Amino acid sequence: MLTVENIETFYGETQAVFGASLHVKAGEVVALLGPNGAGKTTTIRSILGLTPAKVGQIRFDGKDITHSDTHDIARAGIGWVPDDRRIFPTLKVKANLQLGKKKTRFRAWSESEMFDIFSALEYLMERDCENLSGGEMQMVAISRALLGSPGLVLFDEPSQGLAPKVVQDVMNTISHLKSEGIAVLVVEQNAMSALKVSDRVYVMDHGKIIHEGPASQLLEDEPLRKSLLGM
Ligand SMILES: Nc1ncnc2c1ncn2[C@@H]1O[C@H](COP(=O)(O)OP(=O)(O)OP(=O)(O)O)[C@@H](O)[C@H]1O
Ligand SMILES: [Mg+2]
Question: What is the pLDDT of residue 3?
Fold first, then answer.
């Protein structure tokens, strides 16, 4: 579904990603882990065309999207759950969700399916988003991404600032997407939670992919995990 080949990404003169390659298949959950400043968010920004790669190629669903506009990339079926959620605070929950809706060639999701996943969401629809808790905002951000009928969802630190119960809800949602054949790329500091729901993992450091392998290997091999992730 997604192939990132040897990309190099810059902020002005400053290079943040140095020849990173990764891929995600349909129905596969892939974790992208690594320390602060490793280039994880920048890799996501390159996939979305927000900070396009200067070198290399990004393909999604059979098409070269390396230099496509962000709105065309979204329309092609890439959903995004940003690290800062990017909810419009002065709009109601239902209006924020409405803004995410679009048709693609992939599975469409209804609001009632969102209520099945996040039971609290139904009772938040009339609320202004500025008063939501962190966990409630994350429900809105994830639901908004799904209402856009994605074939691939990019999660950037979805468990950040959430209570353990909500982290579990988010990870269950990721597993649910997998069972629906949707591809998921998840960036996480909470490595153990992410590894438990992932098929494969990439570890990034200083803008480079320094490890690639099955998630189960990093879960089980503590010395390897400590050497790569320090935990
Ligand atoms: N807008 C920007 N302008 C200049 N440099 C940036 C910008 N955004 C990120 N960087 C730099 O690019 C590098 C990679 O940052 P990035 O945000 O991709 O890291 P990350 O792996 O997502 O880290 P974190 O876990 O802290 O979110 C860092 O050195 C960062 O300082
Ligand atoms: Mg980041």
Answer: 98
d(CA 224, CA 11): 32
Write the pLDDT tens digit of every residue in 83-103.
888 998 899 999 999 999 999
Maximum CA extent, the chain:
49
Domains and CATH numbers, the chain: 2-86+151-229 (3.40.50.300)
pLDDT of residue 215: 98
CA 58 to ligand 1 centroid distance, Å: 20
CB 38 within 8 A of CB 110: no
Ion ligand 2 contact residues with beta carbon within 5 A: 41
**Chain segment 124-161, per-residue pLDDT in tens:** 999 999 999 989 999 999 999 999 999 999 999 999 98
Site of tokens 């500091």: 189
In ligand 1, which atom is closest to the CA atom of 34?
Answer: 21
Contact criterion met (CB below 8 Å) for 185 and 178: no
Average pLDDT, rounded, for the chain? 95
* H or E segment to which residue 143 belongs: helix 134-147
Residues in contact with ligand 1 by the CB-under-6-Å rule are 11, 14, 16, 34, 36-42
Residue located nearest, by CA, to atom 29 of ligand 1:
37
Of 9, 10, 14, 185, which is best to mutate to test ligand 1, by the most ligand atoms within 8 angstroms of its C-beta?
A: 14
